[in-house]
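All the exercises in this workshop are built on plain-text protein records. An example says more than a description, so a record of this kind follows:
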Amino acid sequence: MSLRTQGRASGRRVTARALMLGGVVAALALIAAGCGGDDSSSEAAGTTTSGSSSGKPCDASIGVLTVLTGAAGPQGREMLHWAQLAVDQFNEENGTDIKVVEGDDQLDPAQAATVAQEWASNPKIVAVVGPESDGTVDSAGPILGKAGLAMVSSTATSVRLTDGKYPTFYRVIPPDSLQGSQDAEYMIDTLKVKKVFVIDDQSAYSKGIADVVVPKLKDADVDVSTDSVSQNNTDYSALVSKIADDTDVVFLPWMLAANAQLFGDQMAEQGKKAAIFGSDGVFSPQDFHVDGSYLSTFSPDIQSDSKYDDLVKEFEDRYGQFGAFGLTTYPATQVVLEAVKKACDEGSSTPDVDAVAENVKNTNIEESVLGQPIEFESNGEMKDAKFYVYTIKDGKYEIAPS
């Protein structure tokens, strides 16, 4: 992600940013495998991809700030690959020369701030895709804001991120309040739950969702128990033993899908029959595959829609299998790309960050892989954003019945 220091060059002023995406590329790209895939559009890989189409020159870099190493690395690399595919497609179709700069924040706010400061002094970076989590937005957001850089996140969900303190922050997904509310409604209206055990993983993301789900369940006269566990924990036997036999659902708004899989395995060892309901952080076919589970996420299943067959094939040929978690990085990147191109078309071949940010702010995408248009409210929230609920059958993810 690109962040500029407070004392950066003149002409870098803070302006509210949103996303300007004048149209959506027909196909979208998927993200998955490791960070070492086909990184032809990444500066980190030492190569760039130039477009073959005619058009006004446009030479710029965009930062992608996410977790690329550690336990959550698979999800972050999936996001990076979505961005790389979007950039390569865009360059080829528009004759632009836009590059990706990779930033590994290690899911650590301090590291995110370090990357942000480095990017803040890089005049080539004109916008950022990310950050990926609430905590990294909190640390990198002030730096990016002072630099006047637009941030378009595809996964950060805290309600507080759009309360006005980060005027250059936008996201193409719904906030925790909507996810928590919709998850609770699904458990109440569709699963007809009577007893639910809610366990957060002590992260701001997890607590934010749990804080919405718990009172909504209680308002519907559901018997709710709560607990909390560290992300560093791998032995859940004591916690699993607390699950009453008549519990319908164990709700896990966790950030690490592999941890949720361990929890599910230990539930099976103790003979616990409650269904797991995970949030988007658990949505990872590679890392979580407990049959009978439910998962909410902010992107539809494009693999079951034939109009995206070419896109699915292109991504899988480059990066292998993918889940739904990273998909939203594709439209987030498209928003940034269109904003950069418009700034080039209306100005110089090296776009100004303020022009890019203004274009982001005025995003109006009529169709996207999200299954809906992309426009932004004045606070950076996407208009009419929604979540999708999946279930796992025979190890396969599919849209859950409503």
Summary: The chain has a mean pLDDT of 86.
